[in-house]
Amino acid sequence: MAKSLNFQRFFHSVKSNLKVEEEPIRKLISLLETDRFQAAVSLTKSEIISKNPQFQALSHLYQSLANSFPPLASSLSSALIASCAQLKLAEPALDIIAHVGENQHPSPSLHSINLLLENLVSTRRYSDTLSLFSKIDSWGIRLDLFAYNKAMQSCVKSGDIDRALALFKRMKEKDWIVPDKFSYNVLISGLWKEKRGDDAEKLFDEMLGRGISPSEVTYNSMIDGYCKSGNLDAAFSVKGRMLISGLKPNVITYNSLMNGFCRARRTEESKNLLAEMEANGLVPDGFTFSILFDGLSRNGDTEAAVDLFEEAMRKGFKIDSYACSVLLNGLCKDGRVSKAEEVLERLVKKGLVPTTVIYNTLVDGYCRVWDVDAAIRVVESMSSYGLKADRFTYNSLINAFCKMERMKEAENFVIEMGENGFGPSIETFNSLIDGYGRANNFERCFEILEEMEKVGLKPTVVSYGSLMNAFCKNKKLNEAVKLFEDIVDKDIAPSVQIYNILIDAYSASGDQHKALELVDNMKKSGLSPDIITCNSLIKGLCKHGHVSDAQILMHKLRDEGLRPDVITYNTLISGYCSASDMHKALQLREEMKQLGVQSSIATYHILISTMSNHGKIKEVDELYHQMLQENLAPDFGMYKTMISAYMRSGDGSKATALQKEMAERSMPIYEMS
């Protein structure tokens, strides 16, 4: 009777503020008084869902009830927090926590706190998770394994692995809590992400030493970590231990291994893993195919990527939109844009819904091969799937028209872009500067720089670099130097790329002394010359017939820690070919092999063209065969060179075979006039 009278006094005192019916609150208090906690949580959730006004301002409800029923404060806050956590309403729960702390009320239960911690982590509110963890720790609540795990998980997700490790140490040594699989899995994964493989190995060994059996997640984290660090042998060793433990590799395991082999350019072994995966009854997912499509394309073998696509289609495997975009990107970068469009059409017939990213890949692909009409056709077809061109779409078109010096059309697309809600970006303006620079319209270039400022975009080093590059390409070196000085006066720090533009220009003009002076200035400003800097110097020497000096410079730079790349070697090989010194040119190609520098199509194009011009058709055949062995697919230029060589030597059958091959690869067929 006393409790009922007490409730009546409370109800009348707060009725004007809460504006509620009596029954739900009376029932809630009754349930908490009789320790029917779960029923109290169910009632609270039901009232929140039904939008009962008295349960909409939960922190106010908590304050009012806790002040009137102090003995129920802890169970009340626990019930309200648990209800909010289960309904994924973090804010009112955090407000209640704040009131508990401010008014020094009894703490809610750790169970309800853990529910809230889980809710915060699941919604990626890692900072709030850690703040809550610290708050309840300061209240003297004895933390359990679950709370520690959520805090460590939040640290890892926030990129603070050291704080996670400190919590792990404290959990074990201060609170005497034994870690579980989840604890180790979170930390091992976090350490690998931070490229701390040695520490991940130590934790893995500690886990085994404690007698905690690794799960699939543990093994997959170790395998993925080793693969990304390039230690494929260790990855396979872990896979072996996984099998011995009785666990079977899953799709994630195989995806990690395939990704590792693709990164190492060992694509054949990746395909073997795919076969093993299927033999074990596992179905490849979209990520599996995206890994293989990307690996094969990066390795220059888009034909194998297409073969894999055909195999996937025959077997009925699903190619998702991401895997599709990866395959199309590889084909487009290889110049096989019509093939990419054919692939998309077939997937659409199988039910794939195209994305803007997929269409942008095709648009950019056609722009790269200067087929702007096809690019515009693709843009127009987007509307049939409810898609619209975005800023990337327009920038691809604008950049292509600028590269082709069709500036009126480029400007028209800038206008259309704005009409469709996309203001020009830095990239848009940079393309325009580059285009007008190519067209020698430098006055318009400076106007565009002013327009950028008017719309609130500050010209970047790239903006000025485009104009400087245009000056240099048009042999206006003095103007380029003046612009360089203006950049410095504007307190814009010149980048390595800016220096490289001038170094390349001076080298090309034969002023090697001035080029080297700029290299010294670059070093004094705290910048280090890169391989592009060196290639410019080497190209300048080769252009003016100093090929031997260029090769000496290459070896000197190598001694200083700069590794020559394929462009370095191609420049020198071209220099020796121009000097008709095929012996040294071929020697350099052998040196490339020994140093692990991958030849490019350009390498073989230089050598084959020179051999062809000297009538050495046998050597042409040998080089072409070696190129194919290196998984380098011929491009249009290579086909043109080979067909011309065979036709000049009177071998029309080989020329015809290559023309047929071009048709099969959906490339324009080259025919000698």
Short recap of the structure:
This protein is mainly alpha-helical and 673 residues long.
Written overview of the protein:
The radius of gyration is 34 Å and the shape is elongated. It has helices at residues 2-18, 22-33, 37-49, 58-68, 73-86, 90-102, 110-122, 126-138, 145-157, 161-173, 181-193, 197-209, 216-228, 232-244, 251-263, 267-279, 286-298, 302-315, 321-333, 337-349, 356-368, 372-381, 391-403, 407-419, 426-438, 442-454, 461-473, 477-489, 496-509, 512-524, 531-543, 547-559, 566-578, 582-595, 601-613, 617-629, 636-649, 652-664. By secondary structure, it is mainly α. The longest helix is centred in the first third of the chain and has 17 residues, at 2-18. Among the domains are: 1-108, no CATH class; 599-673, Tetratricopeptide repeat domain (Serine Threonine Protein Phosphatase 5, Tetratricopeptide repeat), CATH 1.25.40.
SSE topology sketch:
Elements: H1 2-18, H2 22-33, H3 37-49, H4 58-68, H5 73-86, H6 90-102, H7 110-122, H8 126-138, H9 145-157, H10 161-173, H11 181-193, H12 197-209, H13 216-228, H14 232-244, H15 251-263, H16 267-279, H17 286-298, H18 302-315, H19 321-333, H20 337-349, H21 356-368, H22 372-381, H23 391-403, H24 407-419, H25 426-438, H26 442-454, H27 461-473, H28 477-489, H29 496-509, H30 512-524, H31 531-543, H32 547-559, H33 566-578, H34 582-595, H35 601-613, H36 617-629, H37 636-649, H38 652-664
Helix pairs in contact: 1-4, 2-3, 3-5, 4-5, 4-6, 5-6, 5-7, 7-8, 7-9, 8-9, 9-10, 9-11, 10-11, 11-12, 11-13, 12-13, 13-14, 13-15, 14-15, 15-16, 15-17, 16-17, 17-18, 17-19, 19-20, 19-21, 21-22, 21-23, 22-23, 23-24, 23-25, 24-25, 25-26, 25-27, 27-28, 27-29, 28-29, 29-30, 29-31, 30-31, ...
